C-alpha cells in the first residue's frame, strides 16, 4: 500500500509536524495494516506525535492481538514515552483490556507486573480485585506495594460510591454523609 510506504518514510522525518500528519494518515487504513506503525509512533520523541497515535489507536477499537502487543510495549526499557503511551491506551480501553492485563500479572518482568497492577487500579474494574489481592504476595516489593495502594483505592472508591450515590453527588450543605458534597478527590472513582 502506497499510504503505508509514505507513512513509514514520514515517521522517520526530522520534522515533528510531518510525523504527526503521518499518524493521521493511518486513519485511512485498517488496524491490521496500521498496528506496527502506530506502535512506532507511540514511541516518538514528540508528545504530539504520541498523542495522535494513542488517540487513533483508541478510536480503532483494538482487538485482543493488538491489546497483547500494547501490553508488550510496557517492557520497553529505553523509551519512557512508549511505555507511557501504552499505559494511556490500556487505561483508555478500560474493561476491554482487563482480561489481557490479568494474564500479565504473572509476567516474568517485574516492571511489566508493576505497570499492569497500576493500570488495573486506574481502570477500577471490580473483577480485578481478586488478582490484585494475589499480587500482594508478589516477590517484588514494588509490585506488592502497588497492589496494596490500588486495592486501597478500590475500596475507598467503593465506599464513596456507596455513601454518595449518584443522586447525592451534587448536593451540598447537609450534615449527613450520604448527602454531603461529592469530594473532588473522588472523581477518579469510576
Tell me what the structure shows.
The structure is a single chain. The chain is mostly helical and 190 residues long. It is 62% helix and 0% strand. It is built from ten helices and no strands. It has helices spanning 2-10, 16-25, 31-42, 47-59, 64-73, 80-93, 98-103, 110-123, 129-135, 141-163. Helix 2 (16-25) runs parallel beside helix 4 and helix 3 crosses helix 6. The termini are far apart.
Low-confidence stretches: 171-180
SSE-based structural type: mainly alpha
The shape is elongated
* Strand elements, count: 0
How much strand content do the residues show?
Answer: under 5%
N- and C-termini, Cα separation: 42 Å
* Count of individual helical segments: 10
Largest sheet report: none
Q: What is the residue-mean pLDDT, rounded to a whole number? A: 89
Helix content: 55-70%
What are the secondary-structure elements, in order, as H or E? HHHHHHHHHH
Give Rg in angstroms. Answer: 20 Å
Task: Please outline what is shown here.
The protein has 190 residues and is mainly alpha-helical.
Amino acid at each position: 500500500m502506497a499510504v503505508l510506504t509514505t507513512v513509514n518514510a514520514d515517521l522517520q522525518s526530522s520534522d515533528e509536524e510531518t510525523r504527526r500528519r503521518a499518524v493521521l494518515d493511518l486513519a485511512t487504513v485498517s488496524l491490521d495494516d496500521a498496528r506496527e506503525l502506530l506502535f512506532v509512533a507511540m514511541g516518538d520523541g514528540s508528545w504530539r506525535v504520541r498523542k495522535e497515535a494513542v488517540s487513533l489507536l483508541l478510536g480503532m477499537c483494538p482487538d485482543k492481538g493488538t491489546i497483547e502487543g500494547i501490553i508488550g510495549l510496557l517492557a520497553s526499557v529505553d523509551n519512557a514515552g512508549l511505555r507511557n503511551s501504552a499505559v494511556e491506551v490500556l487505561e483508555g480501553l478500560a474493561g476491554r483490556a482487563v482480561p489481557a492485563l490479568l494474564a500479565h500479572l504473572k509476567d516474568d518482568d517485574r516492571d511489566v507486573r508493576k505497570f499492569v497492577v497500576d493500570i488495573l487500579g486506574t481502570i477500577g474494574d471490580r473483577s480485578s480485585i481478586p488478582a490484585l489481592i494475589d499480587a500482594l504476595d508478589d516477590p517484588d516489593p514494588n509490585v506488592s506495594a502497588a497492589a496494596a495502594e490500588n486495592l486501597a483505592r478500590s475500596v475507598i472508591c467503593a465506599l464513596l460510591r456507596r455513601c454518595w450515590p449518584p443522586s447525592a453527588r451534587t448536593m451540598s450543605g447537609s450534615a449527613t454523609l450520604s448527602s454531603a458534597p461529592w469530594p473532588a478527590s473522588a472523581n477518579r472513582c469510576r
